[in-house]
Amino acid sequence: MIVERLRLDGRTVIVAGAGGGGIGSHTARAVAEAGANVVAVDIVGAALDQIVADLTAEGYPITPLVADARTDEGVATIVGAAVSNYGGVHGLINIIGVAAPHTWCKAEDVTREVWREVMDVNLDYAMFLSIAVAKQMIAQGSGGSIVSLSSTSGIGASPFHSAYGVAKGGIVAMVRTLAVEWGIHGIRVNAIAPGTISTPRSGADVGDAERDRRGVPLGRRGTPADIASAALFLVSDLSSYVSGQCLPVDGGTSVKWAHLGDDSTPIFLTNPAILEQIHGPRTS
Ligand SMILES: NC(=O)c1ccc[n+]([C@@H]2O[C@H](COP(=O)([O-])OP(=O)(O)OC[C@H]3O[C@@H](n4cnc5c(N)ncnc54)[C@H](O)[C@@H]3O)[C@@H](O)[C@H]2O)c1
Predict the structure, then answer these.
(1) Positions of the region Disordered (predicted)?
(2) Which end of the chain has fewer beta carbons closer than 10 Å to its terminal beta carbon, N or C?
(3) In the chain, what are the domain boundaries?
């Protein structure tokens, strides 16, 4: 049955950035429910407590690991934990990413310090953790799947958040190149570009449901489970012929042209007869 391709039984998946109750925690749950051994990594130990307690209580194999994925030592610890606890690694999901308030500014005000900080935690770590995991997969001869979180800020413009947008655009470029280099080893490499998602730390809960209804083609803000579903698809054999791609998971926002009004009618369309044809007679 084709649905069996979603199962990850006997495989080990590293979820980097699994704490905090957001996209990472939901992704850790998704791969655990699909049968994987999970190595749940976060720099904040306490952030892992809830998801580790929940999944352990439900009988899923999960190894919590406190590590800084930006360092060589952290990367070695993460891959080492997968190998020593479960004998290898078959999947990596790079969730870690930070959009700290102090990194928002006009492009002309970006400092080298902020640029480096943003690149480190949004792009550089994903490259070096992917390399370490791919080396292990190549040594195992098993193939595998690597998924990294980009953003709609990385596939469109990212005004007043240029460093973040460039880092997330770098993720899209990274997966294309790594997919081509590592395809010969059976390693698939893909990205996900979330739109605005309500997570505990994104502040995305603060907002206007009416604005979401008008601005997002699907009429609502995204949830961590929306992104975890895409991650499960890409890490599993259900996506066995997909590599080098970035999948937007944004309710259709990235294809909504800026010249479309709130009701998705092109703003240049002013002919009353055409508007009536589309929307019916005006009631007010
Ligand atoms: N939430 C959104 O609206 C949204 C939109 C687009 C893209 N994204 C991307 O999705 C991903 C997850 O977003 P989220 O809102 O769930 O974030 P989050 O802050 O809830 O989760 C990220 C986790 O990474 C951990 N982390 C940070 N630095 C680390 C390090 N050096 N080593 C190990 N762990 C570290 C954090 O402690 C945190 O638990 C990010 O890459 C983010 O850029 C989010």
Answers:
(1) 200-220
(2) C
(3) 2-255
Pocket-testing residue among 14, 15, 23, 25, ligand 1, by greatest number of atoms within 8 A of Cβ: 23
Residues 6 or more apart in contact with residue 272 via CB below 8 angstroms = none
For 106, the 3-state DSSP assignment is: coil
Domain 2-255 belongs to what topology? Rossmann fold (3.40.50)
pLDDT tens, residue by residue, 40-67? 999 999 999 999 999 999 999 999 999 9
What ligand 1 atom has the least distance to the C-alpha of 224? Answer: 16
How much is the pLDDT for 210? 85
pTM of the model: 0.96
| Tokens matching residue 121 | 């935690």
- Secondary element (H or E) of residue 248: strand 246-249
Active-site residue, from 86, 125, 164, 241 = 164
